Amino acid sequence: MMRVAFVAVLLWGLAPSDCAAQVRLKDVSWLRGVREHQLIGYGLVVGLSGTGDTLRNSPFTEQALQSMLDRMGVNVRGTALRNRNVAGVVVTADVQTGSDVGSRVDVTVSALGDATSLMGGTLLLTSLSGPDGSAYANAQGAVSVTGFDAAGQGEVITQGVPTAGRISNGAIVEHPPARALQEDTLALELKNPDFKTAMRIVDAINAFAVKRYGRRVAFEKDGRTVTLKRPTQVGTTRFMAELGDLTIEPDTPARVVIDARTGTIVIGQDVQISTVAITHGTLTVRVSETPLVSQPAPRSNGSTVVTPQTQIDISQQGGPITILRGTTLKALVGGLNNVGLKPGGIIAILQAVKSAGALQADLVVQ
Predict the structure, then answer these.
(1) What Cα–Cα distance (Å) separates residue 276 from each residue in 4, 349, 353, 362?
(2) Rounded distance, CA 342 to CA 204, Å?
(3) pTM
(4) How many other C-beta atoms can be found within 10 angstroms of the C-beta atom of residue 228?
(5) Taking the CB of residue 204, how many other CB atoms lie within 10 A of it?
(6) Hey, which of 8, 53, 137, 163 would disulfide with 113, CB 3.0 to 4.6 Å?
(7) What does the pLDDT look like over 27-77, one tens digit per residue?
(8) Angle at the Cα of 250 (from 244 to 252), degrees rounded to 5?
(9) Which of 317, 321, 290, 292 is nearest to 304 (CA)?
(10) Which pairing describes strands 305-317 and 86-96: parallel, antiparallel, or unpaired?
(11) Rg of the Cα atoms in the chain
């Protein structure tokens, strides 16, 4: 109840003009061809204080360690290694299209074996490859871990995740991904595809382009893509910088998202409920067992036994029938709060209203 009521307080004082927020074009769309590429690699973290992999339980760590030492001219083949200062890790990073050779990106390091902590470790030179198998960057550096794990004989304290860390600017781009950006014809991809939002983007861009360049440059393709014809007198970077600061009002679909596990309810601005009459009640059955000791009479041949005593209480709580109708988000949240239910009850009502056909929105259950 407190969670839903808090949402109502936030929305109660908002005027309709406050809900219609103007956002920048760069925040609702992205330029096709300018994207991030995910990289992955396997490496070794050394310098751990006895918190690394158990080599007997992590054969991949032992094999990688032997291969690394072989490349350095140290032969340890056939030797039983017992050190706990090395851990096998998976290294991941994201590289932006158009990154130059020598630019740095952040990397994430995650333990692969049974290491208990990566704190104080250093990642050795690791090659990062893309889905095509080509190596694009190399990563190396000290691992920064925010979590810790402390254990004693009678208690274990763990905070955060000590087996995962991050290296800021830990990877150097060696072979940047190829540019897939066309210079003359560009395309904007909407992050949340919508036909009305696409048309508003086209109108906003053309209104600016007619004043700036003397002609229309934006054309709608569908609800996801807007095609741009770049003027010849301006470069791609300046052209996208000028368009990125244009503001529009994106249109959002009527949608209700509920999470029954946490009791979270998110209601969109345009959600409406047709006039319905609802009531919500609960039936509670409580069964309690009270053990009683039956003591035999003196000088009898009986024995002491425990006899159970069962008590069943049945209570049913119900409320009056309430008329619920929401033509605006403010009225809908206020009506749900007037019902006087906890989030679990609100979720059940929304599902029932949707089944009755009175919820004029998409219901998404997570």
Answers:
(1) 20, 11, 8, 18
(2) 43
(3) 0.64
(4) 22
(5) 17
(6) 53
(7) 888 888 787 889 999 999 999 988 899 988 888 888 888 888 888 888 877
(8) 145
(9) 292
(10) unpaired
(11) 32
Q: What are phi and psi of 205, to 5 degrees?
A: -65, -45
Contact 144, 167 (CB under 8 A): yes
Residues in the chain: 366
Letter for the amino acid at 351?
A: Q
Query: CA 20, CA 13: separation in Å to the nearest integer?
Result: 14
What are the boundaries of each domain within the chain? 1-17+249-287+312-366, 22-33+181-247, 36-143+159-173
Task: Report the relative pairing of strands 255-259 and 362-365 from DSSP bridges.
Answer: parallel
Three-class SS state of 194: coil
Residue 332 exposed, middle or buried by CB count within 10 Å (0-12, 13-18, 19+): buried
The answer to whether the beta carbons of residues 241 and 235 sit under 8 Å apart is no
Architecture of domain 22-33+181-247: Alpha-Beta Complex (3.90)
Average pLDDT, the chain: 80
pLDDT on residue 343: 76
Q: Is residue 337 left, alpha or beta, with left meaning phi > 0 and alpha meaning psi from -120 to 50?
A: alpha
Structure tokens belonging to residue 283: 């039936």
- The closest of 275, 251, 262 to 332, measured between CA atoms, is 275
Q: What is the DSSP string of 68-109?
A: HHHHTT---TT------SEEEEEEEEEEETTPPTT-EEEEEE
Opening angle at CA 23, ends 105 and 266, nearest 5: 90
